[in-house]
UniProtKB/TrEMBL annotation, chain A:
Belongs to the D-isomer specific 2-hydroxyacid dehydrogenase family. GyaR subfamily. GO terms for biological process: oxidative photosynthetic carbon pathway. Residues 49-319 form the D-isomer specific 2-hydroxyacid dehydrogenase catalytic domain. GO terms for cellular component: cytosol. This is Glyoxylate/hydroxypyruvate reductase HPR3. It comes from the Eukaryota. Residues 115-288 form the D-isomer specific 2-hydroxyacid dehydrogenase NAD-binding domain. It comes from Raphanus sativus (Radish). Pfam families: 2-Hacid_dh (PF00389), 2-Hacid_dh_C (PF02826). One of its GO terms (molecular function) is hydroxypyruvate reductase [NAD(P)H] activity.
UniProtKB/TrEMBL annotation, chain B:
It comes from the Eukaryota. CDD domains: HPPR. This is Glyoxylate/hydroxypyruvate reductase A HPR2. Signal peptide: none annotated. SUPFAM superfamilies: Formate/glycerate dehydrogenase catalytic domain-like, NAD(P)-binding Rossmann-fold domains. Keywords: Glycolate pathway, NAD, NADP, Oxidoreductase, Photorespiration, Pyruvate. The gene is LOC108818087. InterPro entries: D-isomer_2-hydroxyacid_DH, D-isomer_2_OHA_DH_cat_dom, D-isomer_DH_CS1, D-isomer_DH_NAD-bd, NAD(P)-bd_dom_sf. Residues 13-312 form the D-isomer specific 2-hydroxyacid dehydrogenase catalytic domain. Residues 109-281 form the D-isomer specific 2-hydroxyacid dehydrogenase NAD-binding domain. It comes from Raphanus sativus (Radish). One of its GO terms (cellular component) is cytosol.
Length: 322, 313
């Protein structure tokens, strides 16, 4: 793996386990690795990163004004997630820093996970598997009936790359799709609801796959859950903070809503323990993107963004900074 | 009019039981301590049998009930009924097609996703508190994988349509090629398995299809391939399946049915690459009610001299 002295310099931060991009990066760039130094991050950056123009943030390290103040030459921040709620986008805009995200790299896997969670909740797949493995099927007694998936009314909050793929997967199930998003999209054939409360009232399932912003924090609150009703199911593959988690736990325990499939939580990896004993809840450890294919795709998107930046081409997956 | 004797073979649905009880003289076979004596006593009053996927009517039972006119099955599969005998004796047979097609197809996709994305393991990983100590491992993507379907009837077609939403190329095997479907046909199950990442059993169980998924097919599917069975347990050579899974020759299996339900081979209980369900293909409130209505509707039509709703024989 030879490194040409002509290769551009890229600052890289990652946690010890997220090594999937190491080869891609070292093959294409000279690397300044925050994780190769014992120095605390701000010290490391002050010492070594003054001339860095591009930064790859592998994982969800918080990028705030303080951190950015140590990167006076930064022009590009490459993120490996779709969500950029961990980045102070306003500050990036102020400093003239472009930001890119994972683009479409994860979208299929996240959509697959959302549909998988929905079917698992309604058809009691996780419960059923435990039931058989515990030997209970051989004993007298009947396993409970589930709820039909096909034909359900599904309201999707967020109709971007992930939401549209969830809709595409649910259409052959005869699900009736409607959505809420910042703005109505003319190219989309589904019914638009301008507010989440009405969306919840008219649907059996709510799927959360929108970005987390100041406007969308706790977009699913108690009122929305009461509107969804006691047969209603929530699927969250967005961010934990989209839901008022304390209220959701109460709603599930009290039967205000019918069930939930959750891949994300407000304070990961902490998960409210009241959910652990509930059969109508299926939990996942923020694993919607965790397939080798997804990681390979996001690595390629990141490299493509970096190459475009260094050759003055348009970025592949720029994030709108508002 | 003397009341019509209806023999219900096993417990299957409370709503169905009630509806039958209201209309007929319902005999619950599973509560009879001495079955031969019971049959002797009631042989001239039983005119209908209600069976399901677990229990139907074999030749012996049909011979024991000379006044039997109709068998109405609470299932779409008819492998528990001696159809040849019914034809011979002019006994009518009905089942519950169409109303359960979506549920079974939904479950097939659910099994694929739960298996490939390890959703059951993810659920227990979080619920056991393990997430605090580290992330779960990577799992396998479903979208874009090739799906091979054995049997392209109502259920097989519904599965194909759903899998297409995940951009899966669809292959199939059936007794005859269907030229207009737009899916790739393979003339043998082994070739289907060789060319598919996910093999789904969705054909009826007959003498020809017993053990249609045998060792050769499993080897063709291979250590990266997975098997999904929402048909009948005997479609798969279960002994070979257990060996193939425990020896790592087959990548995984999602099973809703087994050869000797409710018995499930215990060697499967410790495997992470299987999803095991207690025959719940049509087990939703909505669908079981619709199936019950069909069973009752067929019986009512028969005894009123009207055309049957879903006649097979």
């Amino acid at each position: 793996m030879s490194e040409s002295s002509e290769s551009p310099l890229v600052l890289v931060h990652r946690t010890p386990t997220l090594t999937y991009m190491d080869d891609h990066l070292s093959r294409n760039f000279r690397l300044l690795k925050t994780y190769a130094s014992p120095d605390p991050l701000p010290v490391f950056l002050s010492r070594h990163a003054a001339s860095v123009t591009a930064f790859v943030n592998i994982g969800r390290l918080k990028i705030d004004a303080e951190l950015l103040s140590h990167l006076p030459s930064l022009q590009l921040l490459v993120c490996t997630s779709v969500g950029t709620d961990h980045v102070d986008l306003a500050e990036c805009k102020r400093l003239g820093i472009a930001v890119t995200n994972a683009g479409d790299a994860f979208s299929d896997d996240v959509a697959d996970c959302a549909v998988g969670l929905l079917i698992s909740v309604l058809r009691l797949i996780s419960v059923g598997d435990r039931y058989v493995r515990s030997g209970k099927w051989a004993k007298p007694g009947e396993f409970q009936l589930g709820t039909k998936v096909s034909g359900k009314r599904v309201g999707i909050i967020g109709m971007g790359t992930i939401g549209s793929r969830i809709a595409k997967r649910l259409e052959p199930f005869g699900c009736i799709i409607s959505y809420n998003a910042r703005t109505q999209k003319q190219s989309i054939p589904y019914r638009y609801y301008s507010d989440v409360l009405s969306l919840a009232a008219d649907n059996d399932v709510l799927v959360l796959c929108c970005s987390l912003t100041d406007q969308t924090r706790h977009v699913v609150n108690r009122e929305v859950m009461e509107s969804l009703g006691k047969e209603g199911v929530i699927i969250n593959v967005g961010r934990g903070e989209l839901i008022d988690e304390k209220e959701m736990v109460k709603c599930l325990v009290e039967g205000v809503i019918g069930g939930a499939g959750l891949d994300v939580f407000e304070k990961e990896p902490q998960v409210p323990e009241e959910l652990f004993g509930l059969d109508n809840v299926v939990l996942s450890p923020h694993a919607a993107v965790a397939t080798p294919g997804a990681l390979e795709s996001v690595a390629q998107v990141a490299i493509a963004n970096l190459k475009a930046f260094f050759s003055n081409q348009p970025l592949v997956s720029p994030v709108r900074l508002g | 009019m003397e009341s019509i004797g209806v023999l219900m073979m096993c417990p299957m649905n409370a709503y169905l039981e009630n509806e039958l009880q209201k209309r007929y003289n319902l005999h619950r076979f599973w509560t009879c301590p001495e079955k031969p004596a019971f049959l002797e006593t009631h042989r001239n009053s039983i005119r209908a049998i209600v069976g399901n996927a677990s229990a139907g009517a074999d030749a012996q039972l049909i011979d024991d009930l000379p006044k039997l006119e109709i068998i109405s099955s609470f299932s779409v599969g008819l492998d528990r009924i001696d159809l040849g005998k019914c034809k011979e004796k002019g006994i009518r047979v009905t089942n519950t097609p169409d109303v359960l097609t979506e549920d079974v197809a939904d479950l097939a996709i659910g099994l694929i996703l739960a298996l490939l994305r390890r959703l059951c393991q993810c659920d227990s990983y979080v619920k056991s508190g393990k997430w605090k100590y580290g992330d779960f491992k990577l799992t396998t993507k479903f979208s874009g994988k090739s799906v091979g379907i054995i049997g392209l009837g109502r259920i097989g077609t519904a599965i194909a349509k759903r899998a297409q939403g995940f951009s899966c190329p669809i292959n199939y095997y059936s007794r005859t090629e269907k030229p207009d479907v737009g899916y790739k046909y393979y003339p043998t199950v082994v070739e289907l398995a060789q060319n598919s990442d996910i093999l789904v059993v969705a054909c009826p169980l007959t003498d020809e299809t017993r053990h249609i998924v045998n060792r050769q097919v499993m080897d063709a599917l291979g250590p990266k391939g997975v098997l999904i069975n929402i048909g009948r347990g005997p479609h798969v050579d279960e002994k070979e399946l257990v060996k193939a899974l425990t020896e790592g020759r087959l990548g995984g299996a999602g099973l809703d049915v087994f050869e000797e339900e409710p018995h499930v081979p215990e060697e499967l209980f410790g495997l992470e690459n299987v999803v095991l369900l207690p025959h719940v293909g049509s087990a939703t409130v909505e669908t079981r009610n619709a199936m019950a209505d069909l069973v009752v509707g067929n019986l009512e039509a028969h005894f009123a001299g009207k055309p049957l709703l879903t006649q097979v024989v």
